[in-house]
Amino acid sequence: MKTDVKSLTFDELGARLDDLAQPRYRAGQVFAWLAKGARSFDDMTNLPKSLREELAEHFAISPPALLRKQTSERDGAVKYLWGFDDGNTVESVTLPYKHGNTVCVSSQAGCRMGCAFCATAIRGLSRNLSASEILDQVIFSGAELGARVSNVVLMGMGEPLDNFDNVLRFLRIAGDGRGCNIGARHISLSTCGLTEKVDKLGDFNLQLTLSVSLHAPDDETRSRLMPVNRGVGVDNLFDSVRRYYEKTGRRVSYEYALIDGVNDSVSQARLLAGLLAKSGGHLNLIPLNCVPGLAFRPSARERVRAFEGALRERGVNYTFRRRLGGDIDAACGQLRGGEIQTQKSERL
Ligand code: SAH
User: Fold this and answer.
1) CA of 14 to the centre of ligand 1 (A)
2) What's the whole-model pTM score?
3) Which of 38, 113, 284, 314 counts the highest number of beta carbons within 10 A?
């Protein structure tokens, strides 16, 4: 079995090249080529041919296949469908913001969290992505875009904290200045609220932005929408967020998709305001995005207005977020990956 070279940190790659009796600067060259999207060792033209051959014997690069690319007519968001060698597919999205290009990446093929309103949940979890498969979405989405990617959000398919080790490895590799150079301050990680993993993440004291998908302030509604809440509860979630803040000094942000008649009542807005007053942190309200086959709808305008009014009355800081990519099903919660059978034939 060849080693998946893009899942190695810089130091691990250096150690492996030491074993091959190569000077240290070679690790820098290889690491930089990989971050630039090299598809094979033969692309690495500043390495001697004999070394390229030797590397190809020990290491695999295996870039994903780009199976589909859709561009939003409305806002310039681009959605990519990537296929891996085992037939699994994931989607990533590039978002052209004023402050730079952001890539939204998937951390798992599928998801097992079962949120009732989310397209990714429908087919369950296929498998975790490796660090290199997460990194590839950054590298090759950027290459397709032809522009530098300055920010990454782990808000695509999957629950990043359910794939903890690979996601952490991805963060270390992506943040390395000798490669992609996307540091933690330019990365957001969104979680449905796995409290033990939030605690564990806090211990690493990273400077990333942690975003919690809240979507309901009361246990009854949240447990109905998000099975992860059952047996844990909103209070425990907020306790773990408080510990996270104490460890890292980083405020957490909250995502709240307004769902008509489900989580958008004035009394829920008041409960939400109470939770936020205790914990601090920024609230992002988003309109629910429709998912074919699911009955949930975005809140009617007057319900949104009343909800926002109740938040403002209590001095809650919030942003009503623009949603990009809605016309190509690339907005939050709409990523579902491809059809695995058709994908195999497309690869031939
Ligand atoms: N599993 C992680 C990462 C996914 S990020 C998490 O739950 O945070 C995707 C974001 O889109 C999450 O905030 C998720 O709750 C939200 N989302 C899912 N389905 C949605 C929908 N139909 N409309 C709007 N947001 C949705």
Assistant:
1) 38
2) 0.95
3) 113
